[in-house]
């Protein structure tokens, strides 16, 4: 069962109808919208970034109603529904009712309305194809904005976040009691000032990638945190956690008691002498991607589903999930 966000009785002027005067003079339309999504994260964090803004949805509906021109309110409702799904991947489905209280009827009536429901699986085959194949302007605009958004911003690694942002960290160990080490490292991150632990993946047993022969298998884990620390401050923190767990840097890809890497930071690109984010090899490492996908099945890395990247990774068959 999904949680719901409802907007009812949104009133605005539109220019829709089969008669010419309807497209030139305009008339009032009323829209009800119901969004199906998971609100668990928002309820837990009390943070607006973890939910869908109903104000943004209302603005989007108004844009479609006021800027497009359709003969049928069926097409209007379908366009609104698809635009909403396209606007935020967290929305699983939406139900849209369009009321046309001044429809050109000769009889007395209270209202004329239609209701459509569209789910995310309905989006791909006809992402922006409406009616006879025309693409409404609002959808073209949204496509352009989405393409621009895919260019991740470059971030100053010394600049703290102005509000809490999310980061994904990858942990690994193949010396000593690795299971206890990972548990202790997660506890240290959880207790660190300026960090909130949001989620942890199951453990994975993995084969070593690179480095000397005859290494032990690794235990790997991925965690998601929220922080306002700058990227370099977060790097200082994870390196301190490594040192507290006797990490020694003597050999590249050699055995280690603990390795903690910053995989992502607020969807930003960071390129400094000390830190590169997204982590340069994360997209090719199933020992990172698979635990990450177990923790968050809808996670994306550079716009690609993490679960898809994991299947393509060369070491995919060498990762074993530990319950």
UniProtKB/TrEMBL annotation:
Keywords: ATP-binding, Folate biosynthesis, Kinase, Lyase, Nucleotide-binding, Transferase. Its EC number is 4.1.2.25, 2.7.6.3. It catalyses: 7,8-dihydroneopterin = 6-hydroxymethyl-7,8-dihydropterin + glycolaldehyde; 6-hydroxymethyl-7,8-dihydropterin + ATP = (7,8-dihydropterin-6-yl)methyl diphosphate + AMP + H(+). Pathway: Cofactor biosynthesis; tetrahydrofolate biosynthesis; 2-amino-4-hydroxy-6-hydroxymethyl-7,8-dihydropteridine diphosphate from 7,8-dihydroneopterin triphosphate: step 3/4; Cofactor biosynthesis; tetrahydrofolate biosynthesis; 2-amino-4-hydroxy-6-hydroxymethyl-7,8-dihydropteridine diphosphate from 7,8-dihydroneopterin triphosphate: step 4/4. SMART domains: FolB (SM00905). Pfam families: FolB (PF02152), HPPK (PF01288). GO terms for molecular function: 2-amino-4-hydroxy-6-hydroxymethyldihydropteridine diphosphokinase activity. It comes from the Bacteria. Residues 252-263 form the 7,8-dihydro-6-hydroxymethylpterin-pyrophosphokinase domain. Catalyzes the conversion of 7,8-dihydroneopterin to 6-hydroxymethyl-7,8-dihydropterin. In the N-terminal section; belongs to the DHNA family. PANTHER family: 2-AMINO-4-HYDROXY-6-HYDROXYMETHYLDIHYDROPTERIDINE PYROPHOSPHOKINASE (PTHR43071). This is Bifunctional folate synthesis protein. It comes from Nesterenkonia flava.
């Amino acid at each position: 069962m999904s949680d719901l966000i409802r907007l009812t009785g949104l009133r605005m002027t539109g220019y829709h109808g089969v008669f010419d005067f309807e497209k030139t003079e305009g008339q009032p339309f009323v829209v009800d919208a119901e969004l199906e999504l998971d609100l668990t994260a928002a309820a837990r964090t009390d943070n607006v970034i973890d939910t869908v803004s109903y104000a943004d949805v209302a603005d989007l509906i108004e844009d479609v109603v006021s800027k497009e021109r359709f003969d049928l309110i069926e097409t209007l409702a379908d366009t609104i529904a698809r635009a909403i799904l396209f606007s935020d991947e967290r929305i699983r489905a939406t139900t849209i009712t369009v009321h046309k209280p001044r429809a050109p009827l000769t009889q007395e009536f209270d209202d004329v309305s239609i209701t459509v429901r569209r789910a995310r699986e309905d989006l791909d085959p006809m992402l922006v194809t409406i009616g006879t194949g025309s693409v409404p302007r609002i959808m073209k605009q949204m496509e352009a904005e989405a393409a621009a958004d895919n260019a991740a911003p470059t971030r100053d690694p010394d600049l703290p976040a102005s509000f809490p942002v999310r980061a994904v960290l990858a942990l690994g160990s193949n010396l000593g009691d690795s299971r206890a080490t990972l548990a202790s490292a997660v506890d240290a991150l959880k207790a660190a000032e300026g960090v909130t632990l949001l989620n942890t993946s199951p453990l994975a047993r993995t084969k070593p990638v690179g480095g000397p022969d005859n290494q032990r298998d690794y235990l790997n884990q991925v965690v998601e945190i929220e922080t306002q620390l700058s990227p370099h401050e977060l790097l200082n923190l994870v390196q301190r956690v490594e040192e507290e767990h006797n990490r020694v840097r003597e050999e590249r890809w050699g055995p280690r008691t603990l390795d903690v890497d910053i995989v992502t930071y607020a969807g930003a690109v960071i390129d400094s002498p000390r830190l590169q984010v997204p982590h340069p090899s994360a997209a090719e490492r199933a020992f990172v991607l698979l635990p990450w996908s177990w923790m968050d099945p809808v996670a994306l890395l550079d716009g690609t589903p993490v679960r898809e990247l994991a299947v393509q990774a060369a070491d995919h068959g060498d990762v074993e999930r530990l319950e």
